[in-house]
Amino acid sequence: MAWIVLVLSGLLETAWAISLDRSAGFSRPLPSAAFAVTLVLSMAGLAYALREIPVGTGYAVWVGIGVVGTALVGMLALHEPASLPRIACLALVVAGVVGLKLFH
Fold first, then answer.
1. How does DSSP assign 34-91, residue by residue?
2. Which pTM was predicted?
3. How far is CA 85 from CA 46, 56, 62, 91, 92, in A?
């Protein structure tokens, strides 16, 4: 269960990062509220998962999911550059996250 919560919390990290960007410096109420809610839920899920998963592994997986998710949303929906080197680097992050799970 801890791993499922950790993955969902990583996805929520993506949500709060995108909401933060969309809030335009907290000047837009709806994205600002979405940021606050997803941030709290993401942190709560991470805290829950860390009860069973070592902090180094849990935090690295959480951040990795957030990094990859945020970068993918940026490339696919926000028209950020999607170059082969960027995609290769994201694949390395995914490989690291998978490795941490496999060798946990």
1. HHHHHHHHHHHHHHHHTTTS-HHHHHHHHHHHHHHHHHHHHHHHS-----HHHHHHHH
2. 0.90
3. 30, 27, 23, 10, 11
Give the amino acid at 84.
Answer: L
Q: Which amino acid is at 53?
A: I
Per-residue pLDDT of the chain (104 residues; tens, 9 = 90+): 999 999 999 999 999 999 999 999 999 999 999 999 999 999 999 999 999 999 999 999 999 999 999 999 999 999 999 999 999 999 999 999 999 888 87
**What six digits make up the tokens of 23?**
């809030």
The angle at the Cα of 36, spanning 80 to 25, to the nearest 5 degrees, equals 55
